[in-house]
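Workshop exercise sheet. Pairs work together: one partner reads the sequence aloud, the other fills in the structure field after running the prediction. Swap roles for the next sheet.
Pair: D.N. / O.F.
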Amino acid sequence: MEQVLSGLRIVEFGNDVAAANVGRLLSAYGAEVILVEPPEGNILRHLPPYATKTSTSKPDLEKSILFAYMSTGKKSVLLDLNQPENIQILRDLVLSSDGVVDSYQPGYLTKLGIDLEALSNIKPSLCVTRISPYGQTGPKSSWKTSAMTSFASGGQMYLTGDPDREPLMTAGHQAHIQGSLHALGGTLTALFAAEKTGKGDVLDISLQEVQLATLEGAGPAALWYGSEQPRGGNNPRALWGVHPCKDGWIGVASMPRQTHSVLDTINASALKDDPLFKDNTWSQEADDLLRHLVPLFTLEHDAEEIFKVANSYRAPFAMIPEPSDLLKWRHYQEIDFWQKVTHPVLGEHPVPSGPIWFSPDEGGEKPLPDKGMFRPAPTLGQHTKEVLEALSSRSRTSKNINNTRESTKCEDPYGPPLKGLRVIDMTQVWSGPYAARFLADMGADVIKVEGPTFPDPIRTATRQHRTGEPDINVSAYFSEYNRGKRGFAVDIKQKSGLEALKKLIATADVFLENWSSGVADRNSLGYEDIRAINPKIIYVTMPGFGHQGSDSSMVGFGPTIEQMGGLVALQGYKGGEPHKTGISYGDPIAGATCAAAIAAAMLRREKTGYGCYCVLPQRDGVTGLVGEFFIAESLGFPMELRLGNSSNFSTPHNIYPCKPDDKPRIVLGPDRSPVGELFDRWIAIDCQSDKEWDALKKTINDPRLNNQEYSTLQGRLKYTEQIDKVISEWTCEKDPHELENLLQSKQITASSVATAASLLNDNHIKERNVFISVTHSIVGTHNTVR
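Structure field:
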């Protein structure tokens, strides 16, 4: 089967989950991905969970479930990078490819003699994507990191958790996954530009910068006003969080316009005429009343019962399923979501379908969607002979292993990669606008379409002008995620308005919407409607729960998608309830994925001349963020849920209190008046080896840590509470920024837990010029994330 990315060859020099996930998704949609592994195997082969019940210091390299998931469909080539005779082979392999994904420590490959920048000079169309925790430059570029410390560095961790407790880590490897999705979009955009112009690019993706660019409202508030945002807990608002119910928990995430449907769901319809709720608006008094009414109702009913009633009223409630639930979830069975692969060691196991459904237009009937094709992960070195023999044969039959396509291109190779592209952006709130902003940043002409009486609702968030007067055009949130676009207001309910919009669509390359399923068709803006006037259109739709299956009629936002996708059930304080993340997590995940989907479809159109229909069921994408949990569950090795910040495979591994700020950090309200003060500061410490533990023990210099039983990982896991107590007593008197520098100087993995406002003054961020100034016609000059 010909796929969207068929014909591409990518070489992966992977050393973490970020590079692995980029390669996994490129492979899923048709690219040949060659994973170069050292003799000891890729680092993911040494990371848990493992398909074994016995504990060993040397796990079977073929039994890492994380590797099995993150390396599906790839080819494994075993080459010792320290052997000089292999360096030319690797250079030739790179020059035979379209792109490279590298996540080794900055400078590592160059020291070995594999200078990717130099190779891109030999082959100008080569696209190089480098992913690292802090970027390729700056004082922190060589710092030791882990899944937890990478998440601590970008601001999202500080927002997650309860306000009276330590910040909370999300499940899995989320900092790396977020970075990988942005890297995927960047890689595909570079490949599209290379196809047009013959000129590739070298990308520098920083996991920290990806996070600080996706802090939802906290980021813009800090950028514009220097305001902090506290952790909101599991229920920052009555209709935005997790509530207990008769048999567990139920989630809800309602915009003001859904308030009446929520009141119907909780048997409080009479309140729709109450002045508090008559206009579908929120007030503190209304929120206080709902905080009483919602749990009063949910505690009397089962989650499934509430879910069914809510769906009948189109109220945004959500189940919070665990891995065992989702593996047999009716909706996922109906859409054939779980694909079966057979691994030579692990046996048969499921993997989630890809986050994008591509239906490439081929001039005839719309084909069946391509949800990604997954094959088992390779055994170590499985394809070495095959790949190297083909490479040798290619070298013998070609004077120059580089292809010559770049010399035939006539487009401007130095302009923005998406220059000349026109995008019609019908999306609202965060997921779609974030995707379209990426396209605008890359040079596309993005036209944001809004209704004159129904503008993007996020315009009314933090909407005060700097003079204090309200204005719909000065929302910091709206401005941050819609920069670089042109605005077009039109009433599509009027015949003349719809006709005017369709004339504009006829001139476009991309049409993008994130409505609930069915809305586009009801407004005569479905795929067939648009294709009739623009046959080469890239049509992208982002329904929360897809267009097929029994859940597709659901109304959902980022938090409900996060809940239904399985992430929330996995994370929480140890022994506690499932916990939402501190942002609407599903939104930036879908936004980054959407940008990648558009780039992939444009790349295919550049090669074939045909358009494409792309569906991004946002909930599907969230489930794919933690695929290892589902594989482990299916193989009979279920992973423990809700561990807080601890780990069963590394310790010390926690968030520790630091010396409080001397001066309060101010939290501003929508009118920019102070509404709170913050003093708390924290540090993430993760000893990933006995060597790091010994270094930490010497640095703390407390005799209580000299217990001989602490010398092994198993011993430390047994006494985690006692060890954490000693560490907390040491860290609580220290400045977190001084402490992270001290620990890193001792080669100990650590990071202060950054806040949105603290990142404004981070020396590493300043050196990398992450924040830039832009001038708004009404607001004036303000900061934004580049």
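Discussion prompt: The longest strand covers residues 32-37. What would you look at next?
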